[in-house]
């Protein structure tokens, strides 16, 4: 089994037990995640305002249906490039937590600047038995 798989489709319709997404230190996250889980967004935004979340940080959240979501802090603020080392740190922490919980697969939207973030994802994937599935929108 390849530990990093890529597929097209809707990330939210794949049936993953856990998802991860890139977020900023400034309280900005993907619109689809924010709209689907406003309580998660509120908690995340409060933690950003309090200065708790920094580059390389992680905020996990369990949805009411049991889906686990990892918010990977890899951008300082909107419009800044992702920090590959912050991605490695946050994703490593997320996968360690997922392993403790017995999760075997993690869905991840294709991250911006994939030429830089992709190798970081693959480096981290080589250290775990959890399959990371990178999902790109179809079309």
> Which blocks of ≥5 consecutive residues have pLDDT under 50?
none
Radius of gyration: 14 Å
Q: What is the overall shape?
A: globular
Q: Tell me what portion of residues adopts beta-strand conformation.
A: 25-35%
Report how far the terminal alpha carbons are from each other: 26 Å
- Secondary-structure element order, N to C: EEHHEEHEHE
In percent, how helical is the residue content?
Answer: 25-40%
Q: Major beta sheet, specifics? A: 3 strands, parallel
SS content category: alpha/beta
Q: What count of helical segments does DSSP give?
A: 4
Detailed description of the structure:
The chain has helices spanning 31-36, 38-49, 84-101, 114-125, and strands at 4-8, 18-24, 58-62, 68-75, 105-109, 131-136. With 139 residues, it is an alpha/beta fold. The protein has a three-stranded parallel sheet with strand order 1-6-5. Helix 3 (84-101) packs parallel to helix 4. The longest helix is centred in the middle third of the chain and has 18 residues, at 84-101.
List the helices and strands and how they pair.
Blueprint: E1 4-8, E2 18-24, H1 31-36, H2 38-49, E3 58-62, E4 68-75, H3 84-101, E5 105-109, H4 114-125, E6 131-136
Parallel strand pairs: 1-6, 2-4, 5-6
Antiparallel strand pairs: 3-4
Helix pairs in contact: 3-4
